[in-house]
Specification:
mainly alpha, 85% helix, extended, 156 residues
Length: 156
């Protein structure tokens, strides 16, 4: 029996102090496992940042540094940073509520003067890239009913 199935069975029982204690213990055990993932991510980011800093300051000529800076300025324009800021704000609200990414980002973009066509396009493209990993993760947890998935994907 998988960890999620144990939690599901515990949630279906009558709510008592013992049931709550079992659920809390299971969730705490699960959180202890995910702690090392965050440590690994943090160490990886530090190693990459240190490598980039070292390479930038000691191993790259001034002309190459200038070309890299110009390329970064061409890629990360003020418009892109604006859209990233709106997306970050909408994603924080979505993470807190579990919904409303599209409504929040559309409202912010329209309120800040972006055209409706550009707003719709940017929100839908962003939702594709944020919901696809969530769907893949959900399917790996085996909580997805495959028959419903195929019925709804066929109709879409």
């Amino acid at each position: 029996m998988s960890h999620n199935e144990v939690i599901d069975k515990a949630e279906q029982r009558v709510a008592t102090d013992a049931t709550q204690k079992v659920l809390i213990d299971l969730v705490n055990e699960d959180n202890k496992k995910s702690h090392w993932i965050w440590v690994l991510i943090g160490v990886s980011i530090l190693v990459v940042a240190a490598g980039l800093w070292f390479t930038y300051h000691y191993a790259i000529s001034h002309d190459a540094q200038t070309r890299i800076a110009e390329l970064a300025q061409d890629i990360f324009t003020s418009k892109l940073l604006f859209f990233m800021g709106v997306g970050l704000t909408a994603q924080m609200i979505d993470g807190a509520l579990g919904m409303a990414y599209g409504a929040t980002s559309s409202s912010l973009l329209l309120g800040l003067g972006v055209s409706p066509a550009m707003t719709s396009t940017s929100v839908h493209v962003a939702e594709v890239f944020t919901t696809a990993p969530a769907a893949l993760r959900t399917s790996s947890w085996a909580t997805l009913t495959k028959s419903f998935f195929f019925i709804f994907s066929y109709r879409a």
